[in-house]
Amino acid sequence: MSESASLARSCECGPGDSHLTSREVEVLLRAAAGLRNGQIAQALGLSARTVEQHLAMMLRRARARNRAELIARCYAAGILQPDSWPPTWSHTVCLALSTGHLAASLKARRAAGRPTPGGRA
Fold first, then answer.
1. Which domains are present in the chain?
2. pLDDT 10s digits, 60-118
3. Which residues touch 99 (CB under 8 Å, ≥6 apart)?
4. According to the model, what pLDDT value does residue 13 have?
5. 86-103 burial, b if ≥16 CB within 10 A, otherwise e?
6. pLDDT tens for residues 31-42?
7. How distant, in Å, are the alpha carbons of 13, 41, 76 from that of 103?
């Protein structure tokens, strides 16, 4: 069983390329908390280049253009728990987002008066 498959709580898409590894989750949590690559590397005992590679893989899997979009997609996918600081992991590892799931997540945030990615409430 792959590492990401063993981490997945429940996933409709099954294990695959859209799943984060445990190390990627560790990097994601620190990136979502606002740490820079060098700070993440130091905290995890990695090189800055390794952190960059983990982020690049997550950006590709999430089809995100930048770190902010990656983090927003991780919140929308349920990987990061909303309304927690520092960011916490929900024990979900799947980045596979259906358009309907993302739209429903954004609509629910707006209805609750909470900010959405892009800053609109």
1. 3-10+18-96 (1.10.10.10)
2. 888 889 999 999 988 888 888 888 788 888 777 777 754 445 556 566 666 777 665 55
3. none
4. 59
5. ebebeebbbbbbeeeeee
6. 999 999 999 999
7. 19, 34, 9
DSSP 23-35: HHHHHHHHHHTT-
Helix or strand or coil: residue 14?
coil
State pTM to two decimals: 0.69
Rounded Cα distance between 92 and 8, Å, is 5
Q: At what angle do helices 67-76 and 48-62 cross, to 10 degrees?
A: 60
Q: Which residue has the tokens 């770190």?
A: 67
Question: Which DSSP state fits 15?
Answer: S
Q: Are 67 and 55 in contact (CB under 8 A)?
A: yes
